[in-house]
User: Which sequence fits this backbone?
């Protein structure tokens, strides 16, 4: 993987943050492991390179992972079109991370479109499908912002977890697109962002995005959230999602379940935002979602600094499942499931 010149913003996109862009056989991805200190793009030219970037969270966030994986299949077919290449590319990308269903959804869409044409046309068909997915997710971000801002028109202060902005999804993101829209409408007083240990997507990435957007914010350690919710420090909690089961259970960044429990106990609305590409209609309930377990080093060290005794045993689930009963509403580009239940979810998909 070659490093390219820093270009976190792009004049062609109105100066907004561009986490991922395809240009002439190269997928340029802002390396999120280096943010907020270094803004550097990676130049990715094969499915293996895209999978590697997804696996180490240089590219992350459910919708962005899906878009990147779609381009990954197209890049590989561009190198060597054919069914065996398609199988190889899909396999390596599907193995990169298991929880966000957007990845599987996007790879299957690109695979299906490549298989409708003769071998010499496969790469072009795959690229066209990847670009279509990219455009759809971009449009979805604006629609989620509209729907969510309508739902939360009365919320002056909100809390969010992990990173759900332009770094996590095309456009303005998922939950953070709603927050940005509330700020644009002038009703938002401020945001409380959790650190999101162990990889600090909140402290590193959400704070970076909120600062760029000029939205007032405060950073808290994850364990401060329940007390602040009990004290009614915010009017709503808004988070993203990595996979929504057919019954409305939601897998999202580890710590989301605890936030939902605390919000429920405090009577604070708990709103989940994500595109319909994050809904897994074939998964009946949250207990059946595969939760990614990541390496011990992420818990034992922060950016190389040891936090505990060397060799300490660790559990490092990257996600948890929030039962639908704790969720006030699921905001998608197609509308709102309020509350998320099998029938309201199904209505969004039909
Ligand atoms: O491990 P990450 O950083 O990819 O996890 C991201 C999240 O959990 C987000 O909240 C989620 O993808 C939804 S927002 C785009």
Assistant:
């Amino acid at each position: 993987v070659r490093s390219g010149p820093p270009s976190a913003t792009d004049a062609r996109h109105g100066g907004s943050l561009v986490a991922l862009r395809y240009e002439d056989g190269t997928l340029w991805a802002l390396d999120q492991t280096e943010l907020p200190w270094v803004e550097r793009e990676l130049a990715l030219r094969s499915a293996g390179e895209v999978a590697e970037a997804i696996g180490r969270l240089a590219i992350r966030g459910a919708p962005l992972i899906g878009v990147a994986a779609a381009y990954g299949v197209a890049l590989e077919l561009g190198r060597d079109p054919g069914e065996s290449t398609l199988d190889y590319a899909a396999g390596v990308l599907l193995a990169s991370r298991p929880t966000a269903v957007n990845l599987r959804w996007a790879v299957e869409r690109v695979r299906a479109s490549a298989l409708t044409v003769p071998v010499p046309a496969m790469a072009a068909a795959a690229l066209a499908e990847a670009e279509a997915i990219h455009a759809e997710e971009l449009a979805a971000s604006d629609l989620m912002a509209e729907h969510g801002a309508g739902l939360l028109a009365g919320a002056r202060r909100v809390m969010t977890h992990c990173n759900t902005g332009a770094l996590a999804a095309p456009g303005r993101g998922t939950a953070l697109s709603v927050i940005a829209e509330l700020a644009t409408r002038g009703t938002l007083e401020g945001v409380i962002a959790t650190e999101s240990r162990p990889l600090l997507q909140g402290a590193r990435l959400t704070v970076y995005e909120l600062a760029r957007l000029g939205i007032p914010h405060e950073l808290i350690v994850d364990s401060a959230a329940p007390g602040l919710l009990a004290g009614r420090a915010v009017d709503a909690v808004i988070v993203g999602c990595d996979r929504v089961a057919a019954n409305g259970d939601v897998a999202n960044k580890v710590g989301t379940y605890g936030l939902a429990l605390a919000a429920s106990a405090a009577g604070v609305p708990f709103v989940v935002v994500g595109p319909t590409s994050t809904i897994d209609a074939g998964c009946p309930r949250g207990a059946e979602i595969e939760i990614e377990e990541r390496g011990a080093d992420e818990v034992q060290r922060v950016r190389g600094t040891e936090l505990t005794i060397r060799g300490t045993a660790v559990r490092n689930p990257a996600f948890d499942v929030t039962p639908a009963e704790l969720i006030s509403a699921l905001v998608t580009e197609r509308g709102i499931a309020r509350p998320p239940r099998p029938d309201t979810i199904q209505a969004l998909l039909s």
Notes: The pocket of MRU is lined by residues 57, 60-63, 100, 162, 164, 168-169, 174, 201, 240-242, 252-253, 318 (CB under 6 Å). Confidence is low (pLDDT under 50) at residues 1-8, 10-14. The longest strand covers residues 26-30. The chain is about 40% helix and 15% strand.
